[in-house]
Amino acid sequence: MLIKSLKMKNFRQFKGETRIPFSCDPEKNVTIILGNNTFGKTTLLQAFSWCFYQTVTFDKNPDFLLNLEIETEMNNDTSSEVEVEITLIHDNTEYVMTRTQVYTCKNGTVRGLSPSMKVSYKQPDGQTESVRAVQVANVINNILPEDLSSYFFFDTERVRSISTRHDVADAVKSLLGLSAMDNAIKHLGLKTTKSSVIGKFYGSMDLDGDAKAKEAIIRIQDAQAKREAIASQLDTCASEINHYEGRKEQLDTILRNNQTTTALQKKKETLERQIKAELTAQESLISTYLKEFNYGSLQFYAQPLLQRALDFLKEAKIDDKGIKDLTAITIMDVIKSGKCICGAEIVEGNKVYDHLMHLIAFVPPESIGNAVRNYREKLSSFGSSSDRIYDSLKSRFEDIFRSKSRVQEWNEELEDVSTQIKGKENMRQYELELVDVKARLREFQAKKERLIRDDEGCKQNIETYQKIYDSLVAVSGKNKTAMQYIMYAESIRDWLDEAYRDKEDLIREKLETKVNAIFERMYHGHRRVVIDRKYQVTLLSSLADKEVDTGESEGSNRVKNFAFIAGLVALAKEKIISDSGEEGLNLTSEPYPLVMDAPFSNADEIHTGNISRVLPEVAEQVIMFVMQKDWRYAEPLMNSRVGLRYALDKHSETYSGIKGV
Amino acid sequence: MSEIQSDQLNEKILNRMKYEILKVEQENLKTRERANDAMIELIRRIIIDEVKKTY
Questions:
Q1: By CB distance 3.0 to 4.6 Å, which of A105, A410, A496, A557 could disulfide with A74?
Q2: The domain containing residue A302 runs over which residues?
Q3: Do A580 and B15 count as a contact with CB atoms less than 8 A apart?
């Protein structure tokens, strides 16, 4: 870092705008600002501190930075501003840092608002870019760590505060270029830190991928095997369909070409069915006829004989005075009972008795007339039943005759049809076969469609699992690649860890060596500087065979701190890290300025001379605010290194200016 | 995955990565233009891009 200029506006006693360019000439790297007590030397140093870190250590009214004359001139509802702007070069980049504080006057009281800070930098193409507000403090701290600010903005009269400083190890490491390594280590991170580079690489790996890929390939193979089986079945199906379609075509052709035969065949079959049914019916008719004949044949065949008997009996003269079916035995039984059927009493010799005895002569067995009469009546009855039997038999015979006629007629027709289709194929058989063929075709078509659907399902499964497999294979490949990234990232992190530790130790050792070398040149005595792990500096004196802390005078303390900061600045110029690759990376060859207020205060001539020689050599830029009386001792030694020289011009207690001399 | 051994790392690529990573870290220290997430992504990208060059 080299400071190009400081611009102040109404900052404490520097009323109005004051701009101070500093020498950046490597040969004349010293800028001297001369000023006696109360001229504003400390204010200049505070201007740096305020601009960088918004900190000031004024003894009186430290929070009020506005020039008091300006304050006095302010009216109600007016405002003025305090501004400090530093232009510097750091790591080959020009930065402009501007801190501004607005003061307003209300009811006769002037109060400062919160200061604002702006940092801008020039990009390699010359464009000016502003640093994001949230990163301003980080950027400033990277340029010059605040923890080390009291070394770089060195207030000799407050030098005691340095010795009680807290751990400045991080600040020193940052200044010496280890921040980049430290940040890289943090960013690379660990496997367990998800948001780190390595954590993300691990997070991108799919460790279940291989198992899933195996499962997917098994499923693909299963589906493929199913497809092959389906393909085989489809072939069979297609073959069957082909066969049956061919046969169907043949049958269609045969049936188309033999439609007449088919009709005759149908007629023949119809006739055969009719004849068969008729013969069955005929058998039934004949059976009935025979039953009736067996039952009524006697009456039928006895009919002529009975007719002749009747004719004969008609010619016979028989006095028929008897009562039908009354016999002599019946009359005798009535007489024996003593009472007639009409109720009259029968006594031998009475009229009733006599009448009955007379009647016996006209009834069987005494009289045949009655029997003949009965016989004639029975013959008549027998004859009438014979007529009915005849009619029935005749009717049935006629039915049988007609049936036989029909059968004969159909048989003749059947014979005729049979003659016509004799020698020709049986079309019915073809028709039946065609029906069967059509059914088989439908069956195979349905099977084919089902197989195609199944095949499509398998195909989709294969595609799905293939995609899964491909993605998993890709994942597997991705894992392999991710593993490569991890190997590189972990290798870099391990290297950085090791390099950081090495550099950390090396830096402390080198710094201690360098500080001691500078201290020896500045201090005329025999003491040694020791730097602990917190980069706190102690002076040791050799006593007998031991080194002991013998305390520090203000002078030795000042020299010690000069030596420390000069050593730090000298080390910062060196290339600390250069083995990061074959191209090399110079992380820390950064020059730093030393801004010092009254560096020779309370120093004797020897110390002043030593400091005057050493500081311009080790620091790239030295800015000193010196009292005229002290400068007298330093001037002969430093004069050749002075590039710019100014003198503070005190107009009043509240107004100072600066001019070149 | 275990077949990748650290001795298979390309030393040239490795050094280039170290250089690139430190360079971007150093650059970002200047301006803090990139937040942590962006730096992590940038370093990740450097590693990926450098590894890809080996294919």
A1: A105
A2: 259-318+375-424
A3: yes
